[in-house]
Every structure is written in structure tokens, then in C-alpha cells.
Amino acid sequence: MSKVKVGVVQMSCTASKQENLEKAIAKVKEAAAKGAQIVCLQELFTSLYFCDVEDYDNFALAESIPGPSTDALSAVAKEAGVVIIASLFEKRTEGLYHNTTAVLDADGSYLGKYRKMHIPDDPAFYEKFYFTPGDLGYKVFKTRFGRIGILICWDQWYPEASRITALMGAEILFYPTAIGWATDQDEETNKDQYNAWQTIQRSHAVANGVPVVSVNRVGYEQDGAMKFWGGSFVTNGQGKLLYLASHDKEEIEVIELDLSESDYFRKHWPFLRDRRIDTYSPITKRFIDED
User: Which residues are catalytic?
Assistant: First the structure.
């Protein structure tokens, strides 16, 4: 299959886990009705972004994977005939939690999960308090509509993560994410931050010759202190923007990707061919110095 239609669901969330799940299900069905074959939901879509505080009560939001949310979404995937990419707060066992994305195939089957590898610890993004770094490695899932690679939010800043996932055979890179602006920031800073975020991900598309789909949440949270900036987007394998969402509205969009373009881009811009893999061993060092 050379062409595939991907559905982007950009939405706001409430404090009700059940309400968010039901809302996401309705939007997945709407995307499927518009022709989507793979639908990506944003990072941690069943809740408000709770990592703005270090609060032990928030661990109650976690669930097993597979579990209740994947069960509900599996039924939707089977009914609608779509692949669903679902980012969830995973309780692995007592006291061990991950930021995890489950992949459900178009027949409703559970294909597996990817656990977020890079965990931030910034003001209002205290994820190290909640999440253990992923230990499954980078993952590619063979779905009915193509081989997809999943990375999560903070992973999007790392070319190593996208490169490895692409080298594993991913035909599309998906990034469920949750990122926003502190509302006391100036507009120039906001613009610079968003441009940096979009640019680094578009560069992954160019470097690897594969489309990138980045899905962010939208809306004010944290008692108005944070505006999640939306701005979800889709690029082809040359980094060309095929879709760009607004910064302040919920949106459902379906975009057709031509996966055969990757061969063309990689032949004409042969970055994969010309890699000097024999020179790359120093990249495994924390910093290249004399110590």
C-alpha cells in the first residue's frame, strides 16, 4: 500500500478520565468517517497534563496496558477499521510507571506498546517524578496500513531516536505530544519555542526521508498558567508541511500520505546511503573530552 490516510486528533482535556476517553473515541470515529486509516491521539489524552506538580495522588490515573482504555479503543478500531495510536499512563506494577503508547491494529488486535525513552524534568513538566524511562527500546509496528514508528513528546528533540526508528523500517514517524507556553511569556519567546519544536521534527523527516505526524493537545490548563499550543502538523519525507493545525482550536484532520515518495526522496537526497557509520562510535559518549 503506497498511500495511507492519517487522522490527526488535536483536542483539549478535562479532569474526567472517562469524559476524555469518550471524547477521544468520538473523534476517532469522526476521523474514520472522513477516511482516516491510522488515527493518532495526543500524549496522555485521558487526563489533564498532571506533570505540572509532584503529587502522589496522580498515580491513580495510571492503568495497565493492555487494560481498560485499550479494551475500549480496540473495539472502536475493529468497528471502524482503523489503526489507533493511544498514549496512556501505564502502571507496570506497584511503584513502577511509564509514559506509554499502545498501538491497536485495524482489526482491533493489540500490537504492542512503546515506552517513552527521554523523560523531561523542567518547570511544569516534572515527568521524572512519575515515569520510569522506557526499557523496550525503539519500536516499529507492522499495521494493516503500513509500518509505523512511535516516539513520544520529549523524544522529538533527539535525532538519534528518529534515526534508529527509521532504520528499523518505519514508514511514518508519529509523535503524540503535550507541550505549551507559560502564559506569562512574551509573544516572541512563544514564537521561537514553537518554531524550534516544529523545525526539529521536520528535520527528522528530511534526514530520514519519511513523513512525520506530530499531534499536540490544545487549551489552557494548570489554572490558566499553561496554554498548550496545539499546532499539530504533518510533513512528507522532504519536510514539506501538508497540514498545520491552529494554536487554540480542537481539530480533526485527515491527510493522505504517499509512502512511495520515500524511495524518491532517498534516491535524490541520499542521506541514508551516505552516512559514515564507521565514524559514529563517539556518539555513545556523554561528552567527547579527555576524561
Answer: 43, 116, 153
Query: How many residues are there in the chain?
Result: 291
The pair phi, psi for residue 169, each rounded to 5°, is 105, 10
Strands of the 218-221 sheet, one edge to the other: 180-182, 226-229, 218-221
Pairing of strands 110-115, 96-104: antiparallel
Instruction: Say how many Å lie between the first and final Cα of the chain, rounded.
Output: 51
Question: Could you read off the pLDDT of 164-189 as tens digits, one per residue?
Answer: 999 999 999 999 999 999 999 999 99
Question: Measuring CA to CA, which residue among 230, 122, 231, 228 is closest to residue 182?
Answer: 228
Handedness of CA 69, 50, 20, 170 (dihedral sign): negative
If one counts every other C-beta atom within 10 angstroms of the C-beta of residue 50, the result is 20
Three-state secondary-structure class, residue 4 = strand
Q: How many Cβ atoms from other residues are within 10 Å of residue 290's Cβ?
A: 3
